[in-house]
Amino acid sequence: MTCKTNEHLEELIASVRHYTQFGKVADYIPALGKVNGQDLSIAIYDVNSGCLYAGDYRKKFTLQSVSKVLSLALVLMDRGKDYVFERVGMEPTGDPFNSISKLESSIPSKPLNPMINAGALAVTDMIIGGSLEERWKRLLTFIKELGNDIEIECNMEVAQSEFETAYLNRALCFFMKQHGIIQGDIEELMDLYTRQCAIEMDCFDLARIGAVFALNGNDPESGKQLIPKEIARICKTFMVTCGMYDASGEFAMKVGIPAKSGVSGGILGVVPGKLGIGIFGPSLDERGNSVAGLKLLEKLANEYDFSIF
Amino acid sequence: MTCKTNEHLEELIASVRHYTQFGKVADYIPALGKVNGQDLSIAIYDVNSGCLYAGDYRKKFTLQSVSKVLSLALVLMDRGKDYVFERVGMEPTGDPFNSISKLESSIPSKPLNPMINAGALAVTDMIIGGSLEERWKRLLTFIKELGNDIEIECNMEVAQSEFETAYLNRALCFFMKQHGIIQGDIEELMDLYTRQCAIEMDCFDLARIGAVFALNGNDPESGKQLIPKEIARICKTFMVTCGMYDASGEFAMKVGIPAKSGVSGGILGVVPGKLGIGIFGPSLDERGNSVAGLKLLEKLANEYDFSIF
Amino acid sequence: MTCKTNEHLEELIASVRHYTQFGKVADYIPALGKVNGQDLSIAIYDVNSGCLYAGDYRKKFTLQSVSKVLSLALVLMDRGKDYVFERVGMEPTGDPFNSISKLESSIPSKPLNPMINAGALAVTDMIIGGSLEERWKRLLTFIKELGNDIEIECNMEVAQSEFETAYLNRALCFFMKQHGIIQGDIEELMDLYTRQCAIEMDCFDLARIGAVFALNGNDPESGKQLIPKEIARICKTFMVTCGMYDASGEFAMKVGIPAKSGVSGGILGVVPGKLGIGIFGPSLDERGNSVAGLKLLEKLANEYDFSIF
Amino acid sequence: MTCKTNEHLEELIASVRHYTQFGKVADYIPALGKVNGQDLSIAIYDVNSGCLYAGDYRKKFTLQSVSKVLSLALVLMDRGKDYVFERVGMEPTGDPFNSISKLESSIPSKPLNPMINAGALAVTDMIIGGSLEERWKRLLTFIKELGNDIEIECNMEVAQSEFETAYLNRALCFFMKQHGIIQGDIEELMDLYTRQCAIEMDCFDLARIGAVFALNGNDPESGKQLIPKEIARICKTFMVTCGMYDASGEFAMKVGIPAKSGVSGGILGVVPGKLGIGIFGPSLDERGNSVAGLKLLEKLANEYDFSIF
After folding, report:
1. Do D211 and D91 sit in the same domain of this protein?
2. Binding-site residues of B, please?
3. A187 has a pLDDT exceeding 90
4. Does C2 score more than 70 pLDDT?
5. Confidence of residue D3 (pLDDT cuts 50, 70, 90)
6. Minimum Cα–Cα distance from C187: chain D residue
7. Catalytic hit among A19, A45, A57, A193
8. Do D71 and D195 belong together in one domain?
9. Which of B295, D82, D174, D208 is most open to solvent, judged by the fewest CB atoms within 10 Å of its CB?
10. From what superkingdom does this record's organism come (chains A, B, C, D) (predicted)?
């Protein structure tokens, strides 16, 4: 990476910001729709040379689907690979992230991977703890540690709003409960899951979390192993094969780095061994990815040859 | 119909009872599994010449899916055809009765017909009333009137047991709630629906209800129009095109009368203008129909030329 | 039936002809698109009181899917029920008439019924004969006999045009050949099938064929048993459960008689014991049924209480 | 890579050869079934330090699905990305490699990616040339150049046998022809495609082809750019997201290198910047991948840290 200045990053942002007009802010819940569609910000955490920023990189946003990678890492650490992959598959899917049909046609009836809603719900169901609050604290503590930011919290307005309207996710949960994939109480799971999706941070936090993955699970500052290397690698693999909704394949070709997006407009990017990237651009394309964020990553990847392929 | 004697009916039963060994009693809830698999009984309500019985025709059983026809009749009367068929389709389906995939692939996302679980749940959701108890009373009163038996009640043990384990039906409900097909509270709906399925009666009651349909909705005794003719006809049509689960087409060919079966082993049969039939035979084939009950109806239909085709 | 005069039939036609404007003539092959969308004609063959006509009832049209019922009758006669239903199912389907997905998801991989394209192709494959010409002659002779009209022939322009463009039907055939449902050469089958669909007749011929079914397989003039009673009944059952494409259920409710439609705009109708009906109205609704033809049947059915339910 | 000796490779092979007993040789055509299920061989082409071999690495086998990557590279070079990806998608699929359902449910009806049969057939259809022989020669010449082996040829017995029985692939082709994805004559396409799958080479040839991809398209000996860098990268991306049938995700996690397998038991592996790998082990697991070949790659990857993640 020779992107040495914030100024250059600002130029890059300026050159792609107009793409925001081709997208749309998610508004299936009112709380999400309040943001400014023209926002675009980025933080890059270079594990060798420090950080770069551009845009309003301290603006907070909720993780939404980005959180799926983090809960997966936690659950793999707590439960072990065998336990987790008995309940959730490892394969990409050509179906939409919220689809239920494959659960019905697959034998056994388990979600294809942890990046689609069904799989992520099954993963969150596996978070250990004697109560909702204990499980929630366990997850939040882990994410605060990854981001090295004790101020990371849940946006309860967003969580509450999603909790009240998440009928489709409840359908997925009950279907999986019928088939023994999900064990716990569904309303408790929905509460935990909607909080998880509503965890709020800024680009800088996200970039730092990316740096942890870039360093195979090591804290970029303390050097502490926050996530075992194998689990970090598993997470990065899922980010490549199914991190960007129905555009994962296209993204792998055009950009070629592990990344996970959310409908809030956040993107977590990882350049193995080198960088963590956090992006916030709430204007989404029709697949649910930040439209300008994608362009920004594509430009960066081409300029600095980020692709792992 | 020249089946003039109970003795002849008893002979018919004796000749098919051994088929019960080729089936299995439903045991997905313990309360259902308590019955004797070799049971087989029948009542025939001839609108001209009175009633015939064979077997232990006063033994009670729960309606299960047989109830789908009755709630449909009630809701069509209360809401009108247009309202109902905006939310539930009129077409048979090649998918299993509890399938969710077609809800996802259909646009708009409405159940194909009221005889599959999704459709029946949507119908029950339309039962009018200010509270669960009011709606339940409305349905039960209607069914007591059809059966002319004030002792018809719900088997609360069965209802409770189904309520607690009906994860798949909850999945269907939440999916439909997401798509605006179902309006009400899901837990209240599940309570009402599991009570509806657990309504308990005997073959005689069922035969009398069949007679009402045979007479285009008229009470065979009082002559009162309990169901408008057009609605009775709609119900009979659904019984022919999708009354016998995945064997509806085969049944139409071999027997050729409107009929609806349930996993308790009950079958409601209608010979238009002539007879109502109630059968109880809890040993089920792999599609969920009473294995000996089907044989009994096939023999009767061939002997007395019941087919409407 | 008290529709005693051609004049009354003409009035009925006049009252529904404007519905033709809400439909569209099939034009996926040029030869089909040549007709006049405002055409509407009907012939009724009353087995007791002779025939009635209205519109240009001697205008010829190709049978298209109407032919599926006739080839089924022939093959059931030649091969027997067991042979046929080992290869084609008896159940209605909620999928489109030309769908391939259910062939893939069903185990064993056989078409759900003989009224969808896959099933009809499998049926035509079973027509007996040592060569294409022998098989074709066998089918055509049978249909001439049903219609009592030696002038019934194939419209070779339509047949040729369909033969050249029937890629989807070839896909269905090869899929079924892979699974052992279809035995013969696919190109020969396509030739035979496209000729079958292109058999040309007029409303009067079609009404007479309907009369044969109305009389349980007996020739209305000679009394000869052209089709065994059981097979005639099987055909009528399929007409009710899946004769009108994706509107079969709705048609059964609104009209309630065995009927089979084709994309040429033809409809074969049967009022058991009473009438055969032939209709031609090439303007189609979005499901592929004659838009004015449906209205005409609905009016007739209501006026004369045709419904079998 | 410090795997410096053939002896060490032989030891690795010896340590995993017993896995062959847990698999089965493909025998859907007799010509494929003739091989010895216990065979296992490997060649590694290190772009810095020369080649290593173990097992009977000069034994020939047909490419089968491995060829899908090579025809894709050729067609991307000849037609350009835009042309190709208008007709074939870029996304992984959770469906089996030979599935047809997604073609029906997707709008537009294009194959999800070039590694499933439908996509590979569409790709082969795009090979340029005025005749079958011209197109075939174009493909074969390209592959000879990649392998730097003019003796690479088609096994005509295998090709012929697949040609005669490839009903399912014909079904896929006709379905795509119906939807305009495939333009050319289907029988010519089948001829070309079955030849492509029957191209025969040994592990050494395959390892050398892998080295070309490892070097971003450059010939490891002459340095000539045989495939443009961007196209080589696209191919490697598809190998990661969908190269190992329904086990692509699991393989990416456990091994983490671009690879493509075929039902002959061949595997093409690429360690970017470093190695090409050719493996032959015809005993297959239930997903169609070489059972001992997978274990061998897993051991190598762990020992030498091959994973790109």
Report:
1. no
2. 65, 117, 162, 169, 193, 245, 263
3. yes
4. no
5. low
6. D187
7. A193
8. yes
9. D82
10. Bacteria
**Which entry of B35, B240, B263, B291 is annotated as an active-site residue?**
B263
Q: For residues D235 and D69, is the Cβ–Cβ distance under 8 A?
A: yes
Of D150, D180, D199, which residue constitutes the final position of a domain? D199
Point out the domain boundary residue: D199, D217, D243.
D199
| Parent domain of A135 | 67-198
**Are D71 and D194 members of one domain?**
yes
CA A150 to chain centre: 19
CATH label of the domain that carries residue A254: 3.40.710.10
**D138 lies in the same domain as D159:** yes
Per-residue exposure over A84-93, b if at least 16 CB sit within 10 Å of its own CB, e if not: bbebbbbbbb
Dihedral angle, C-alpha B295, B301, B303, B308, nearest 10 °: -160
Taking a C-beta distance cutoff of 8 angstroms, is the pair C277, C42 a contact?
A: yes
Q: Is the residue at A95 inside a domain?
A: yes
D250: three-class secondary structure by DSSP = helix
C–D interface: beta-carbon pairs under 8 A: 47
D100: nearest CB among C100, C167, C177: C100
Chain D CB within 8 Å of residue C8 CB: no
The pLDDT, as a whole number, for residue A3 is 58
B16 occurs within a structural domain: yes
| Buried-state track C65-92, b at ≥16 Cβ within 10 A, e below 16 | bbbbbbbbbbbbbebeeeebbebbbbbb
Average pLDDT over chain D reads 95
**CA–CA dist A32, A198 (Å, integer):** 10
| pLDDT tens, position by position, D270-286 | 999 999 999 999 999 99
C309 within a domain of the structure (yes/no): no
pLDDT at D28: 87
Residue of B nearest to C114 (CA): B249
- A104 interface with D at CB cutoff 8 Å: no
Q: Is A245 a catalytic residue?
A: yes
pLDDT of residue B109: 86
Q: Are residues A181 and A116 in the same domain?
A: yes
Percent of chain B topping pLDDT 70: 99
> So what's the ipTM on this one?
0.94
Judge whether D177 counts as a catalytic residue: no
Residue D153 assigned as binding residue: no
Catalytic residue among A263, A270, A271, A291: A263
What are the binding residues of C for substrate? 65, 117, 162, 169, 193, 245, 263
What is the average pLDDT across A262-268? Answer: 97
**Does D28 reach chain C within 8 Å, measured CB to CB?**
no
